[in-house]
Design a protein that fits this description.
Among the domains are: 216 residues, 3-Layer(aba) Sandwich (Beta-lactamase), CATH 3.40.710.10; 107 residues, Nuclear Transport Factor 2, Chain: A (Roll). Helix 2 packs antiparallel against helix 12, helix 3 packs parallel to helix 7 and helix 13 runs antiparallel to helix 14. The longest helix is centred in the N-terminal third of the chain and has 24 residues. The chain is 35% helix and 21% strand. Strands 3-2-1-13-12-11-10-9-8 form a nine-stranded antiparallel sheet, with helices on both faces. Strands 14, 15, 16, 17 and 18 form a five-stranded antiparallel sheet that branches. With 517 residues, it is of the alpha+beta class. A hairpin with a 4-residue loop joins strand 12 and strand 13.
């Protein structure tokens, strides 16, 4: 008993006395106003969808830069009692729990208590009873499980009904042996079992039950005080009863308990609570020098978001206007990664259990998120969130948040403004890498630049540099009869100079030609 208490205190100590996480606010007033103007159309979109899909109840929210700027509720949390869905109604979010499991594993990794390439048998010796699919199969690692490439078959119908399994039942399941559909490491396939096994790894390494570790190390530091695991702990008037639509009528689904499979889908939460979690993920972008404020490092969150297993190119994401818009679909650690042909990136995960369906997605470059819960079995919330995202992108004209140019990028832009007009030897030496004149003759640069400057006339001003990253950007020299667009890339040395330079003539627009800005 004392040893257990020491272990628990050792795990909890980093969070004792720590302030609750509070997301920063970066909101651009003009952008927020455009989003607010679209909200009535979004509300109608979700209302129509609820009617079409026979959703008993629904709640959705829009997040901008870490703040829930809009929440809408629709329908009933309990049909028999006539209770409506309210902002503090709690829903089971099913597989949206998986990112918490991945985060718990990465937190233990960051603390040096495990490695992602550790074999599963290091923590669950009973897994040695599981025979590999082929003689050349590698051992299953934690990384395989996180990325859903351990080789287990997709198991939603089977796994969803095992939510309340005990540790002993999971142990017995593994000891009897398991079946693979793929050799580990060769193919992605969605596995609830894999995340149940990760939850048990957390239990073993942390020295406390998985649910307790996630609650004390993640939920409470994030201020998620209304998020729990057992429906029995939720006051009846705050719980969304789950239903299925069958033969033209709603039927109550039995409320599932929580157990070892809770690591794949057990959490029960409110929209506001879950919004704090999504804000934490959005806060990981962009990378910056600010002090760490959350229970897990921003770099660890970004590691979760990046694609680890590629699923393929999917043509299921048309624009709001109906144009084809294929996306690359991939999986990170407990989260899906998506990037469409426009370059828009969103991170997401859906959840589905008997009685519930949910989905959330956030656009890290845009600082925007959508969250939706419903109390219908496997409610297809991914589809409606996808349409809502497209409406936001289209009607609100969402664009990525502008990154801040690095000091050296701004300095080189100022130097190039002078250099292109004078080719002063001292400025050339301070600004350009040696390869610039090795790749193209200096005389050619001077002759072509002089021709372009003659076309734009006297230079009136230069625009601020627009960065693509910390070492690449573009700016414009604004002339009386035209402009020059200047694109440049810096080299990777300690004193980064310009290694690539491109300049192009740009005709004046009508407004500029008439003296406009």
């Amino acid at each position: 008993m004392w040893l257990l208490l020491i272990v628990i205190m050792g795990v909890l100590r980093p969070t004792l006395g720590a302030p609750l996480y509070s997301p920063p606010v970066f909101t651009d007033a003009e952008r927020l106003a455009k989003i607010r103007a679209v909200l009535p159309r979004l509300d109608q979109l979700y209302r129509d969808y609820a009617a079409e899909k026979h959703l008993p109840g629904l709640i959705y929210g829009v997040m901008v830069d870490g703040q829930l700027v809009h929440v809408m509720t629709e329908g009933k949390a309990h049909l028999g009692a006539g209770r409506v869905v309210e902002r503090d109604t709690r829903f089971r979010i099913a597989s949206m729990t998986k990112s918490f499991t991945a985060l718990a594993v990465l937190l233990l990794r960051d603390e040096g208590k495990l490695a992602l390439d550790d074999p599963l048998t290091r923590f669950l010796p009973s897994f040695a009873h599981v025979r590999p699919l082929t003689a050349d199969a590698p051992p299953v690692t934690l990384r395989h499980l996180l990325r859903m490439s351990a080789g287990f078959p997709q198991d939603d119908p089977w796994g969803d009904r095992r939510l309340a399994d005990t540790v002993a039942e999971l142990e017995a399941l593994v000891t009897k042996g398991l079946s693979y559909s793929w050799v580990p490491g060769v193919r992605w396939e969605y596995s609830n079992l894999g995340y149940a096994l990760l939850g048990q790894v957390v239990t073993v390494v942390a020295g406390m039950p998985y649910q307790e570790f996630v609650t004390t190390r993640l939920l409470r530091p994030l201020g998620m005080t209304s998020t729990v695991w057992e429906a029995a702990t939720v006051p009846a008037d705050h719980f969304a009863q789950g239903y299925r639509w069958e033969r033209g009528a709603w039927r109550e689904e039995p409320v599932l308990g929580d157990g070892t499979f809770g690591a794949m889908g057990g959490l029960i939460t409110t929209l506001d609570d879950f919004g704090r979690y999504v804000a934490f993920h959005l806060d990981a972008w962009p990378p910056r020098d600010d002090a760490e404020r959350g229970p897990v490092r921003r770099s660890t969150l970004r590691e979760m978001h990046r694609p680890s297993e590629v699923l393929g190119v999917v043509a299921d994401n048309p624009t709001w206007e109906g144009k084809p818009n294929p996306r690359l679909a991939a999986y990170g650690y407990g989260l899906s990664f998506n990037q469409d042909e426009r370059g828009i990136v969103w991170i997401r995960h859906a959840g589905g259990l008997p009685g519930y369906g949910s989905e959330y997605r956030f656009l890290p470059d845009h600082g925007v998120a959508l969250i939706a819960f419903a109390n219908l079995t496997y409610a297809p919330m991914t589809a409606i969130n996808g349409r809502a995202m497209e409406l936001l992108v289209s009607a609100a004209g969402l664009t990525p948040r502008q990154p801040v140019a690095s000091p050296v990028l701004r300095q080189r832009a100022r130097e190039l403004t002078l250099l292109l007009q004078t080719w002063d030897p001292a400025t050339v030496a301070a600004t350009l890498a040696p390869n610039v004149f090795q790749d193209r003759d200096e005389a050619d640069w001077k002759r072509d630049t002089a021709d372009l400057l003659a076309r734009i006339g006297a230079i009136r001003s230069a625009t601020p540099v627009v960065p693509e990253n910390q070492l690449r950007g573009r700016f414009r020299l604004l002339g009386e009869t035209g402009n020059l667009e200047v694109y440049f890339t810096l080299m990777p040395e300690a004193d980064p100079k310009v290694q690539e330079l491109k300049i192009a003539f740009e005709a004046l627009s009508g407004a500029e030609g008439k003296g406009g800005k």
